[in-house]
Amino acid sequence: MSGIGPERTAALAERVEAFVRGTVIPYESDPRRDHHGAPTEELVAELKDRAREAGVLTPHILPDGSHLTQRETAAVLTASGLSPLGPLACNTAAPDEGNMYLLGKVGSAEIQARFLKPLVEGRARSAFFMTEPDGGAGSDPSMMKTRCHRDGNHWIINGRKAFITGAQGAKVGIVMAKSDDGACMFLVDLPDPAIRIERVPNTIDSSMPGGHATVAIDNLRVPADQMLGNSGEGFQYAQVRLSPARLSHCMRWLGACIRANEIATDYANRRMAFGRTLIDHEGVGFMLADNLIDLKQAELMIDWCAGVLDSGSLGTAESSMTKVAVSEALMRIADRCVQVMGGTGVTTDTIVEQVFREIRAFRIYDGPTEVHKWSLAKKIRRDWKGAQAESGAT
Question: Which H helix or E strand runs over 332?
Fold first, then answer.
């Protein structure tokens, strides 16, 4: 990947940061929220219009349709994440950012024109339908119960999905189902009467429009040319999406924790207790020092994994390590920020309490920490067996 180079990347990231700090942050107190606290479609559309005017809408995708390198993307997405509303405004939020990446990599020209273009232009939101309830696909996608079969020039899909981020209000859907050949991936227009939202539960996080819906799919008919690739190749395409998507989450939430730490630092330097500012009490000062250490380590992990992906590797193990290390580090940072700020830290007077909630959810979505560690342990075992076989040891 050629990208745009370090100087143009730095300039772009600075523009995104200036936009988020100057334009987006004042919207954090905007009351236009849905039943679980997420910004309404009206608010998101207004924010995207402001980003379009500022020239920072979808900044990670260039006018010719090419994508920034992962290292360049890290600078831009971290800047967009300085506010929970920033990724929505700049069109770098999940699941759209990951879906745009996937369609840009493997979508046909027809699919890109019909489904990718409105996403890049910020005119539509999308949803990725993979996770299932009732013992179906989740951390183990091989358990997929949603089925599909060929019917002339169409495929018929039946099943249920759960925790589908942004399904309510989405216009583009990527649906995974299993045929006799294996997993398949389809592009669909939304809404569709065959895709019915059963419920949208209230959840600990509140940054993503449309929530995390449970969905029933009843005899959904999809034209055959809306399948990505061939029947049975769905998991292959899922891997193209998942490693960069895990890393993108790390980038955005790093930005959020940088901001939370700024707020906590400002508080600790202003608030007096026992005759001194809080920062002068070691118990507080050391927490903020630990935050700086964790922020730097998270930044370095992201840069390392981005370099692996830029080399052309799928980076499955590397993205698992980075997701674990960064999500756990950011959780520590968010927790310390709340603690430093005491009672103020658990109020909605600042975004610190929201960042804490969002990071807690981040430790689960795109694979819980424990699943990634289990996957890495299996790799350690495979690598050991391979080394033993190569050396002729028994």
Answer: helix 316-341
Show Cβ contacts of residue 26 under 8 Å, excluding neighbours closer than 6 positions.
none
Contact between 305 and 252 under an 8 Å Cβ cutoff? The reply is no
As given in the structure block, the two tokens for residue 90 are: 């700049």
Please tell me the distance from the alpha carbon of residue 300 to that of residue 294, in angstroms, as a whole number: 10
**How far apart (Å, rounded) are the C-alpha atoms in residues 304 and 267?**
32
- Full-model pTM: 0.96
pLDDT at residue 392 is higher than 90: no
Spatial separation of the C-alpha atoms in residues 81 and 252, rounded to whole Å: 4
User: Any idea where the domains of the chain sit in the sequence?
Assistant: 6-93, 126-230, 235-389
How confident is the model over 96-125, as a mean pLDDT?
96
What pLDDT, in 10s, does the model give residues 338-364? 999 999 999 999 999 999 999 999 999
Cα three-residue angle 320-326-332, rounded to 5 degrees: 135
Determine how β-strand 172-179 pairs with β-strand 126-129.
parallel
Q: Examine the pLDDT at 1 and tell me if it is beyond 60.
A: no
Q: Mean pLDDT in the chain?
A: 96
Q: Which CATH number fits domain 126-230: 3.40.50.880, 2.60.120.1440, 1.10.630.10, 2.40.110.10?
A: 2.40.110.10
What are the backbone angles phi and psi of residue 124, rounded to the nearest 5°? -150, 155
pLDDT band (50, 70, 90) for residue 202: very high
CATH superfamily of 235-389: Butyryl-CoA Dehydrogenase, subunit A, domain 3 (1.20.140.10)
Quickly list DSSP for 53-68.
Answer: HHT-SSTTB-TTS-B-
- 234-270 and 70-80 are packed helices; what angle lies between their axes, rounded to 10 degrees? 50
CA neighbor of 211 nearest in space, from 223, 220, 222, 203 = 203
Q: What is the pLDDT of residue 386?
A: 94
**pLDDT-above-70 percentage for the chain:** 99
